[in-house]
């Protein structure tokens, strides 16, 4: 009886994915596009659609945009609504896109998809300008224009590509601990140990004097003071774009293939548990449909059709905070639901 009752609430689901550590990019299908005034709406709509395609495909290649347009649709066909918003005294066109239509079009055209869960790249950027003591770039403080050069690149790419590019935030205890460290201590290890991320990037920018600067660590380059701001932003932009391309490429789901998998979730002791666990699954972009097969002894079993292969689904589940894989084989995955 309970089983039949639940079946009435089951519908075909399009589901969104998780990765490695990752975090969910909540507004994946909402783009905030800078706009000068209302006369520029059409331009901003076109730009927002392009960025939506870049974000969902994990690629900044314009070929996917033209593939979609050449299929007989317009950019506006994918838009649910748009409005002008004021954020931090700047005007943005907020464009909300139709998730289901976009995904179906991507599937139709065999364009790979990257889901809600996006990698976290953590940047430890040490700056030694020579005018103040060396310090690490932080989200809560800017000491000079160099800081803003780094931050503007991270903010722009994070927003446009849908990826978490993070720098530390220091409280009073952190600052005191860092200031008391000696040559036997590792500030970078102390800072990085306080955060979770998929990849750590270490960079140091040093003023060598005589109008010369040097970048060491994961980026290596020499710069002159004359063109420091532009050269620094260009070098950093190129690097961040490259690492973003790599991390998102690893997450792409092959929409040309599907596989059926049995998924059993234990720990379902109430209807609320069923709804909550199903909602967790509904954030996975890798699943094109889900069908309930049984509910017995607090275990609910689904037949799930997954885009790509079974590893796509395993990777998604492994990185969800509420769903834990207890066992799996070539055709079945057992999961424990934790409230």
UniProtKB/TrEMBL annotation:
Any Pfam family the entry gives: DUF2066
Highest taxon of source: Bacteria
Protein name according to UniProt: DUF2066 domain-containing protein
């Amino acid at each position: 009886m309970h089983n039949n009752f639940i079946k009435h609430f089951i519908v075909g689901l399009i589901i969104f994915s998780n990765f490695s550590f990752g975090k969910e990019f909540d507004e994946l299908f909402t783009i905030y596009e800078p706009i000068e005034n209302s006369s520029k709406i059409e331009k901003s709509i076109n730009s927002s659609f392009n960025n939506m395609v870049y974000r969902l495909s994990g690629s900044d290649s314009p070929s996917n945009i033209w593939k979609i347009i050449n299929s007989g649709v317009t950019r506006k066909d994918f838009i649910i609504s748009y409005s002008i918003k004021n954020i931090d005294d700047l005007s943005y066109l907020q464009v909300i896109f139709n998730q289901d239509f976009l995904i179906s079009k991507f599937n139709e055209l065999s364009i790979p998809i990257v889901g809600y869960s996006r990698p976290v790249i953590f940047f430890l950027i040490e700056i030694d300008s020579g005018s103040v003591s060396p310090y690490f770039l932080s989200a809560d403080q800017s000491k000079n224009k160099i800081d803003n050069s780094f931050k503007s690149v991270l903010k722009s790419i994070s927003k446009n590509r849908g990826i978490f590019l993070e720098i530390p935030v220091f409280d009073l205890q952190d600052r005191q601990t860092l200031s008391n460290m000696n040559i036997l201590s590792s500030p970078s290890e102390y800072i990085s140990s306080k955060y979770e991320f998929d990849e750590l990037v270490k960079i140091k920018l040093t003023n060598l004097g005589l109008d010369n600067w040097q970048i060491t660590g994961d980026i290596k380059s020499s710069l002159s003071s004359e063109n420091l701001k532009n050269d620094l932003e260009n070098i950093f932009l190129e690097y961040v774009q490259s690492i973003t391309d790599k991390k998102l490429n690893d997450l792409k789901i092959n929409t040309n293939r599907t596989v059926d998998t049995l998924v059993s979730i234990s720990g379902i002791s109430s209807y609320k548990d069923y709804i909550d666990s199903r909602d967790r699954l509904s954030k996975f972009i890798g699943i094109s449909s889900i069908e309930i097969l049984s509910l017995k002894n607090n275990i609910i079993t689904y037949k799930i059709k997954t885009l790509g292969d079974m590893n796509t689904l395993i990777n998604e589940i492994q990185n969800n905070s509420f769903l834990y894989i207890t066992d799996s084989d070539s055709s079945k995955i057992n999961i424990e639901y934790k409230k």
